Each structure stands twice: as C-alpha cells, then as structure tokens.
C-alpha cells in the first residue's frame, strides 16, 4: 500500500479532451447533415399539408379579428423569447 502512495499523481481532476479526430469530425458532419435533411423533409411535408388543406383560408374568412389578435400575440411571444437570448448587461464597477 505504501508503494502506491509514493508514486506521484501526474494529473489531478479532469483534462480537456484532445482535438477531434478526422473520423469524429466526419461522424458529426454526417449527423448534422442528416438532421438538416430530416428537417427539410418535415417542413416540406407540413407546408404541403397546410397548403392542401387551406387551413388559413378557413380561419381568416370566418373570424379575421381573432386571427389577427392571435397573430399579434404570437409575434409578441416570439419577440420576448428573442430578447431572452440576448446576453445580460455587465454590472458597472463603482468608481472610487
């Protein structure tokens, strides 16, 4: 037991991983490309489905006031969500 305690510990804690290898970069690139392709396919299918069903025409034709309020509230919520992505302001240091 004492022999093992005499050996110095070369590194304590966690070390940063080495840079990604070529194979890792290829796998990450393939995963991102697959995700982008699946998003494009999903968005295309949704867009075609909405255009075929003409959902917006039925809503706007009957209750345009409610649709306008919903649209404004949706844009407001999107704007508030975008503001939450901004970095916080730094606190000013008091000058002496």
Structure description:
This protein is an all-alpha fold and 96 residues long. It contains 4 helices and no strands. The protein is flat and about 80 Å long. The mean pLDDT is 75.
Question: How is the main sheet built?
Answer: none
Helix count equals 4
Instruction: Give the structural class.
Output: mainly alpha
Shape, please? flat
What's the end-to-end separation, in Å? Answer: 57 Å
Number of strands: 0
If you compute it from the alpha carbons, what radius of gyration comes out, rounded to the nearest whole angstrom?
A: 28 Å
Low-confidence stretches: none
Percent strand: under 5%
Helix content: 55-70%
Average pLDDT across residues? Answer: 75
- State the order of secondary-structure elements, H for helix, E for strand: HHHH
Topology of this protein?
Blueprint lengths: L1 H5 L15 H32 L1 H8 L1 H20 L13
Features:
96 residues, mainly alpha, flat
In short:
The protein is mainly α. Helices cover 68% and strands 0% of the residues. The protein has helices at residues 2-6, 22-53, 55-62, 64-83.
């Amino acid at each position: 037991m004492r022999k093992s305690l005499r050996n110095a510990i070369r590194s304590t804690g966690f070390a940063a991983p080495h840079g990604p290898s070529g194979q890792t970069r290829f796998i990450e690139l393939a995963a991102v490309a697959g995700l982008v392709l699946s998003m494009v396919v999903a968005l295309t299918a949704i867009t075609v489905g909405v255009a075929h069903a003409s959902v917006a025409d039925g809503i706007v034709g009957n209750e345009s006031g409610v649709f306008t309020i919903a649209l404004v509230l949706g844009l407001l919520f999107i704007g508030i969500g975008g503001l939450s992505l901004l970095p916080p302001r730094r606190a000013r240091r008091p000058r002496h």
